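REQUEST FORM: STRUCTURE PREDICTION
Request ID: SP-0412
Submitted by: Lab K.M.
Chain count: 1
Length (residues): 370
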Amino acid sequence: ADQGARELMLEVAWCLSFFSAKEPDCCEALLRNQALELILPLFARLALQNSDPRQLDAPLITPLVRAVSNMLPILGPDRLHATLAAHIDFVAGLGRLLTRDVRQLHPTLCKESLWAVSNCCALGAGPDSRLDKQHQQGAQQDMQSPAVMLQPESNPVFVRLVETFLAPVCWHFTNSQVEFQREATYAIFNLASRPSPDTLIRILNTQEDFPVMEVMLDLLRGDDPELTRVSLDFCELVLTKLSNPFAAVRLGGKSGSQLVCALDGIDALEHVQYGPRSSPQLAEKAAALVNKFFGEDYLDEEEEEEAAADDFFPGEQSVTDQTFAADFAAADRMPPSAGRGRGLVLPAWLAKANNQSAVNAHLRGQPPLP
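STATUS: Completed
RESULT:
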């Protein structure tokens, strides 16, 4: 009887995966009928019931996590926040699927979990976020204030996401093949896109263990236009939010522009600007960043401001930033924690309503190849 019940759940899970990968109306219908509230506890129980990754029921968990990944972007920031707050075990279960052992034993499940993570991390991220819009006017002045640089992330749900996902996502981004790295790229961008620069600074301060900035710049020199776009957006965040002396104090002495320059980032940006495979939009954006942040006077301007930062900050980097990466990198396993980005990347049918090829490229309704 138990085996029969599992087989029935497996069929239903794949049906939910297929339906959620269709038009938005299908996802809305599933949400209205409480599908997500039924899936999340089941997923959490299956992911957390056994610490041995060899005992994971990957054939059943995989369609469940696909269905969840398709439905999360439909929720919007407020409903997504409420859902994650009410299902914190789901976050822990998702984090359990990001370990090295799961990647080795169940690579498809691990990749799908990274996609779900990036959607979870889109909480309040991206250009459509109301939180970001509140900071757009005068953002440059706000980000150069010491108060903003010292302000920690205040959303408790997002704090839990950062504590759970940041280290394993950075590990996958810097140590995995492109199929895993792609999903981790979206997750890192979404984590970094909060109005407060605190999480972005924590990401960059993992450089010794997880060279995120270096890998992002390498992706600018690659041939994948989508990864180039996301990496360029990440570089824009680093340059616009952290190119000031107050940020430099928390980044070990280098501001955002100085860090990018030290890692040969100007060459990477110019590769996008002049590369034959770059779209006009990406080339224009890369050129604008080079002109704005690496003009003839940019070093002189930063030197003039460095003295002002000393009046507000102590001379040492915070203990949290110094030890964050080392604590996780030393662990034998990736720590438990818990999407593709709402403002950045949406499920197939939302990504570009007038672009069916983009829709087909991101559908997750099909079962994995044997």
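NOTES: The mean pLDDT is 79.
Reviewed by: T.R.
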